[in-house]
Amino acid sequence: MAGKMPALPGYFHKRESFMKRRLLIIAGVVLTMAWAWAPRLGTTAATQARTLTVSQTPGAADFTSIQAAIIAAAAGDTVEIIDSAVYQEDLLISSSKNGLTLRAREGQTPTLRGTTGTIIRVFGAENVTIRGLKITGGTSNGLATLGAPIKNLTVEDCRFEAIPRAAIVLDNEDTATIRKCQFLNLGGPAIVMTTGASAVISGNGFRGGPMNGQFSDGIELVGASADIIGNAFIDLGRISIGTFPQSEDASTRTSTIRIINNLIVGSGSAIPDGGDGIQVVGSANTINQFTVVNNTILNSARYGIGVGFEDRQSQAVLANIIVTGSRGSVGRNTSDLAIYSDFSRSLTAMQTTIHHCLIGRDLVFNSSGRNGNITGDPRFVDPGNDNYRLQQESPAIDKGDNSVIQEFTTDLDGEPRLVDGDLNGTATVDIGAYEFQVAGVRCSLQPAMATNQAGSSHRVTATVIQDGNPVSGVAVTFTVTNGPNAGASGSGTTDGSGQTSFSYMSNGMAGTDTIQASGSIAETPFTCTATVVWAPPVPPIQYGQTITASIDAAGETDMYSFQAAAGDVVRARMSRASGSLNPRIRLLDANQMPIQEASSFDDAILDRTLDAGGTFFLLLSDDNGRETGGYGISLQRLNNPVGAMSLAFGQNLTASINTAAELGAYSFTANAGDVVRVRMSRSSGSLNPMVELFDSTGMRLAQVSSFGDAILDGTLDAGGTFFLLLSDDNGRETGGYGISLQRLNNPAGATSLSIGQTTTGSINAEAKMDAYTFNGTTGQMVTIRMLRTSGSLNPLIELFDPAGRRIQRISDFRDATLSVTLPVTGRFSILVSDDNGRETGNYQLSLN
């Protein structure tokens, strides 16, 4: 079971000591162990399996006590309860009862109400089947295994209800099948598996209730393997399916966990801070291989799926999953996918594959729009009444990956998995636990949902099928029934693919049209609809551009469009300029479907590599929809920024940041091994300089910021073209700045000095650095003096060895002197500048 202290948001849940639970189980065994050794009354030497009956009606059966019948049974016998009475007793199935079946007679539902301890104990017996019982009460667990590993335990068609602790406990290499059972209102987890146990868990129902507490999970796995197939988890107290690390002193175990075709709704009804649909974790001694496919996970109190790995061998594949509606906090936002903060973020991200899922909101893996992942409303039939099957218009239809369904070719209803639900001629698996089934006469319109600019044209294609097959020669009428273009109409006849199309021109007004296609086949009518949003003209934004605007009312959004090519690495930055606005950026594709988003208290930055080219949109708003204020929005391409100014080693330029979110771009070329320095110093205003260095692919190599004077030093591993983005640290402040670039190993434009020489120079711009070089030998003592002769310069001297490593620095208000013993022989470099990069003046420099 889970840890005694509720975990903080963002943390995975741990388990209490399993040994503590084992001691409680064993204590109960001692009370009844005499049953196992008592002589079996009425036994014979017969070898044929018998059926021993039990009823509380005297004379109606062989026994009135279930335990008495079990004691009398031999290996392979059946104990059948023939009435629906309540039996208040605890049972022990000992190791001599291999092959025993304990079952209810067809049509009867006997209740086994426990008294003390665990209600059913299976002690070393193999091939035991328990069927058709209602198991409730007791003071501990519903069913637990003891002794040697229990092989081939089957529990089916049972109802576990109102049990204080776990319903079923398996460990010690046990193997089991648990199917078609109901687990209701439990004080602990429904199923606990540890220490190498393995099970097939299928067709079961799990539901929460008033007894739920901090340990009320659906399934807990600790160093155990399981196929969890086709189950429903509704309103569980905490986690619906949770994996947990073993204790640190446990032996290493590798487990395989397949979670397929499950419905998981409302996890965390009792413990919202731990309410996760699925908890996916692995550790150094608990190596787990996860396949999580075709599940529907909704309305979790915290995360739909939380993932955390601290080892390099655990892996998780998440595919064909609907996960949406989670309410847990990640910063200021909710996310349906999360990485637990107890685990390595980098390892978890690297070892988790997410593809072909419908995700409501992913702020952690940023998977939406990649690898077949989509977002949006799943369009369930009737979620208010727990019907999570897909409507005909669902975006999840035929959007999955056929390669991951393995042998599971039916859905949660037992219906076929591969159905051509979108009528495009190819049977593709749907996303989620349920497959949309095509029957009778049906039509569909594609695209089902679209967004176009007002004033342009729109085309839809109707497909008509009968019993899954396209029908040709069918007359179809198209009508725009609602919206700014209501009344537009057309008609067509289906071709051999069962398709016909309709196009119309928008009248230029914004709004949403509903398009209906209708007709009939052999007097069986059909209709289908689609929608198109006619958006008002969207102002464009270009790479290298900054625009200022404002959010003036609660709930207001602004939109901008831009053109990009496949492979562009884009940066959008939205910074508050006034008011209390908390910027939020959403990047949308050409159909205005979300790809990625970013938000912040005052400065939101979104970086994204685009997989395809075309038109994209930026949707801007306040993060919580309540605050207002002015903002700046800038757009830039990080791999080859537009408008970048060329900068050379030894060069100094001046420029300014004039608006919120503005980005200044520069480019330079360098060789592998160059030690570069970039300096950005404020010259006016309230600018807090920030310098970012990118390689030619748009990967950021380094970043530094400062109150007034930012200095970035770094060694380049490869040669080529590099880019600099300069801005204000929080995106809000403005002002002038100076920018300089220098190479610290062999500075460009350096003046050669000799020992005993004195020279003069001038720092006449912000961030300017003058470079000098001289030859020196190991152990030689040198003194460098920099004296201000005019202006407000605060002298700064920096000495570098031949490799570009700084040996020493010193600064002073007026007169700086640096004395040092040289560590190596070679050509040394001196950089002189103003201490804070802002002041200017003349100076005298001497080397002795």
Automatic annotation (TrEMBL):
Q: Output the InterPro entries linked to this UniProt entry.
A: Beta_helix, Big_1_dom, Choice_anch_Q_dom, Ig-like_fold, Invasin/intimin_cell_adhesion, PbH1, Pectin_lyas_fold, Pectin_lyase_fold/virulence
Q: Which domain of life is it from?
A: Bacteria
Domain (Big-1) ranges: 438-533
Matching Gene3D superfamilies, A to Z? 2.60.120.380, Immunoglobulins, Single-stranded right-handed beta-helix, Pectin lyase-like
Q: Which family does it belong to?
A: Belongs to the intimin/invasin family.
Protein name as it appears in the record:
Big-1 domain-containing protein
